Amino acid sequence: MASGQIRADVKPGLKVNIVLKKDQRTGVKTTGIVKDLLTNSAKHPHGIKVRLEDGQVGRVCEILTS
Questions:
Q1: Sign of CA pseudo-dihedral 59, 6, 38, 11
Q2: Distance of alpha carbon 39 from alpha carbon 25, whole angstroms
């Protein structure tokens, strides 16, 4: 299972777990399908920031399907 820290691993249509900004302290995960990638750098230590199809924005902590 990929961690979601490398931009090349994260693509629109993938099912992922993200941590929303409001959940960063608790680490609560939200599952959804990637719509857009918001991080431009090749990697990010806290995970690539994405927008899910339902509009929520957060950092990828796990990639569930490839």
A1: negative
A2: 21
Q: Is 2.30.30 the CATH number for 7-63?
A: yes
- Please list, residue by residue across 23-59, b when 16 or more beta carbons sit within 10 angstroms of its beta carbon and e when fewer do: eeeeeeeeebebbeeebeeeebeebbbbbbeeeeebb
SS3 state of residue 15: strand
pLDDT one-digit tens code per residue, 6-58: 999 999 999 999 999 999 999 999 999 999 999 999 999 999 999 999 999 99
Q: Taking the complete model, does pTM exceed 0.85, yes or no?
A: yes
